[in-house]
Structure formats: C-alpha cells, structure tokens
Amino acid sequence: MAHTLKVNGATHSVDIDDDTPLLWALRDNLGLTGTKFGCGVAQCGACTVYVDGKPMRSCVTPVSTLEGREVTTIEAISGREADAVQKAWTAGDVPQCGYCQSGQVMSAVALLKEIKKPTDRDIDLAMNGNICRCATYARIRSAIHDAARTLEG
Amino acid sequence: MMIRKLALAASAALALGLGGTALTLAQTAAPPTPASALRGPSSFAGIADRQARSVALFSEIGKVLTHPRCVNCHPATERPRQTDAMTLHQPLVVRGKDGHGAPGMECTTCHGKQNVDYGRVPGDPHWALAPASMAWEGKSLKDICEQVKDTSRNGGKDMAALIKHVTTDSLVLWGWKPGPGREPAPGTPAQFGALMQAWADTGAACPAS
After folding, report:
1. Structural domain containing residue A37
2. A15 in Cβ contact with A21 (< 8 Å)
3. A39 and A51: one domain?
4. Cα distance from A91 to chain B (closest Cα, Å)?
C-alpha cells in the first residue's frame, strides 16, 4: 500500500505494508541509513528519530501511524542544541564503535531542548533507554554537560 | 519484510502448537479459574444484606483492579511495572511531572497509539501512568476502594463519572486487549462495567480489609 511520509522536510511516497516499521522505510526505501537497527523491540534506542519533534523508536513505529506527521532523522537535526552536542561529542571523542551514536545524539539533543542545564539524574533518565555496547556512558554524560555549558553561552 | 514475515510465521506456528497443547489441557481441566473470569452482578443477588452485597461486588471488581494489566501502571513508586510477573519496567522509566515520563524519555518514545505486536510493545492514545494519588500497587482492597471513591484523589470523579471512565477510556479498555504475551484483565469490559454499576447501585460499600 502507498504511504506518504514526510521525512526531513521532504515528502515521499513509499509502497510498503501498513505495519512496516518506520526504520525499515527510512533505511531500505529512502536510503537514510544513519538511523540504526539494534534490537527491533524498543530496548536499545539505536533507531531513535523524532516524530513531530519528539523522540520515538522507529523500529516499533508502523508507517500507518505517521500520516500527516513529520519525521526527522539524524541526517537532518539542526539548531543550537544539535550544534552544541555535535561539538561536545567531537571534543570528547565520545563514540567508540559508533553504532549506537546516532540514537544517543538524538536523545541528547531532545533532552537539551527540554532541559537547558540537566543534572546527572536528568541525563540518566533521558538516556538510559539508549544502550552502548562500548559503554561510553561516562563520556556521553560528560559531553551532555559540556553541550549544556556551551548553550549557556 | 520477507524475513520478518517468515519469523512471524514461525512464531505463529509455535504459538499454534502451544495453543493446541493448551486446548487439549483445557478440554480435560476444570472450568475457567476465578482469576481469569468474572461473576456477573446476578451472582450476588442471593446476598440479602445490601451492604454485604456491595462489598462482595467490589471484591469481584478487585480481581480486575489488582490484575497486573491495571496495577503495573498504578505503581506505588515513581516506576511502573511490566509483564504478568509485574517486574520493574525495562528500560528504567519514571512517572515524571504528569505521568508521561521524564523529559527526553516520555512514554511516547516507545509506546504509540496502538499495540505493536512484532515489537511486543503495547500502545494506546492515552498511554500514561495513573496519578500517584491513585497508586494501587501493594494496597489492600479496602484502601483501593476508598481511593477509587475519593474525589480528592480520583480526579474529581463522582460515581457516574467514574463508571463512565472505566467503561469508555481507551487505556482502561486496553486491559482486555493487551496484545500477545500479556494476560488480559479478568472477564470482559461489559462484565466489569456491570459490576461497577451494581456496586454503585448498592451504595458503593468498601471491604473491611
């Protein structure tokens, strides 16, 4: 069945089953491979995208639920928070293997949009759904604090 | 897509096999256990004392209210539970300011408007935790009963509004269609609604313990 998906500001028509996970549409139909498959059951966070500006696990989001909604992927996040996170991630050498990092960045930017100066607990609560097999958690937390300082100006 | 369909077919075949075993057992076992069924209001008509009948009706209602489908999201702490075993929700999530989770990790990060069976993630448009004032986890039926009736704790609902809530709210009704891998709440929504109405009609008395 044809579905209209608004992704990163562009409208796409994709002919896929109603229950196809958004993640598959992004990667297989639209070629947006920055969003990763990790677990397929919303337990790891590697597939995090924004739907109408809020983080969602694309592996458990059927395309049939996205009519009229706006999807943003790691390829297109922008703004002050995204810039600050990118700078802090680079300065802190946060990624190791990097596989989970697009999901980590999406969650970190979402947190900073809501809480300008998050505490360790705020960070833990926002980020604990994003698993990192290289255990870069300490660097992620540190980089989010760094990004928050940058945003403070 | 094909790989997923094959996986789903394999799961379905396994479930069918298990289902067949369960069916065989069911045919030789006793009728449904009280835990999975509800008695209708007429079952209590023989209790002459109105207050005792009301208490008995609420005890039947309590089978639903204390079921994992209900208690998991009426937690006593800031953390919801999940599964029939009522384990702490994984990943760690919290109530947050309004019952919808913490900033950056709200319920809607994973829970959509509908169950997603292939991901085993339940969903509903109203997915959220009950307010802390309506925590049922670990409480006696007496305490839950008093809580449910108390308009200062139940969101200002009088008995009519309460019955409307439990018979029409999509998240309440989700308890009877929770998707594979989760036991539905006992009985049916219609039976539950009839019990609530009968309880209200008999004075909405609460158990002594």
Report:
1. 2-76
2. no
3. yes
4. 23
